[in-house]
């Protein structure tokens, strides 16, 4: 089988490529140049797609003994991921750019290009498993629960899953690093990337301010009383407690939290932690990894990449969206987040919270 191995320059993708090559497949490594400023330098575990990452990926490919190329997808990444990220925040929603990147870049642009060039599949270093099922391939959680990335892959449909290889899904991260060391891969001890890859300094509010400018608006409580002002509602997200810029807490000294963001009026609404709790969720634009579940089914739902799974019952389902009733309330849920649905370790699909 001809396999295109996406190599980010990190330890996971390097070991994934090595495993696929060792299994006897014809493997070609490719590094995706997604940054318009690749000369920038990585700072610890922040940032990606730097000239250092490209160099690390090339050295890993040389060590494995596979051909290696760099593909420039910076323009598409800017359009489909970064511009979407900015537009979502501007609209008062909280997007997950990793979900969008997997959907639009790694398993759309990359996979389509790979298939056009005669490859059979794309391999990545994601921690997830594709297992055979009665009705076709199924996406499952990784063995290493702490590193599981099935949430950000829940947007993949059956056709894409059938062309995806995740060689690390059955292996704990510590063992992957040990394997990289044994294989002589220099990236064995390289820090993992985290946070938003295209905001290397971690200052999301500053990044958005550069793109959207400042626009003063009110901060109000749930009764509508004005408590202060802000310079851009996009700088806030539901559940946020710090950085509100308010001089006084709630009565009784309790902290305030962001409850909602109203982009039309440019208003940030804050309140108590109890007001953050929700017991039901609705989401639109569902994507199913296989046959969809049915109303009344018990499912597990996850609303953050590193959040806990919560038991729920599916109360609504049609082509436009899904609705679930949670067994226990969750806090800080924001429109724009991805709702992933599970049955045991199996990913059923995903939708976008409204």
From TrEMBL:
Q: What's in the keyword line of the UniProt record?
A: ATP-binding, Cytoplasm, Disulfide bond, Nucleotide-binding, RNA-binding, Transferase, tRNA processing, tRNA-binding
GO molecular function terms attached to this record: tRNA-uridine 2-sulfurtransferase activity
Name the record gives this protein: tRNA-specific 2-thiouridylase MnmA
Q: Binding of ATP: at which residues?
A: 6-13, 32, 125
Q: Which Gene3D superfamilies match?
A: Adenine nucleotide alpha hydrolases-like domains, HUPs, Translation factors
Top enzyme class: transferase
- Subcellular location(s) per record: Cytoplasm
Q: What is its EC number?
A: 2.8.1.13
Renumbered to this chain, the signal peptide range is: none
- The chain positions of domain tRNA-specific 2-thiouridylase MnmA-like central read 207-272
Q: Where is the tRNA-specific 2-thiouridylase MnmA-like C-terminal domain?
A: 280-352
**InterPro entries found in the cross-reference section:** MnmA-like, MnmA-like_C, MnmA-like_central, MnmA-like_central_sf, Rossmann-like_a/b/a_fold
Where primarily located? Answer: cytoplasm
Family statement drawn from the similarity comment of this UniProt entry:
Belongs to the MnmA/TRMU family.
Active site per the UniProt annotation: 101, 197
Q: Which reaction does it catalyse?
A: S-sulfanyl-L-cysteinyl-[protein] + uridine(34) in tRNA + AH2 + ATP = 2-thiouridine(34) in tRNA + L-cysteinyl-[protein] + A + AMP + diphosphate + H(+)
Q: What role does this protein play? A: Catalyzes the 2-thiolation of uridine at the wobble position (U34) of tRNA, leading to the formation of s(2)U34.
Which residue ranges does the record annotate as region Interaction with tRNA? 147-149
Species source reads Spongisporangium articulatum
Q: Where is this site: Interaction with tRNA?
A: 126, 337
Source organism's superkingdom?
A: Bacteria
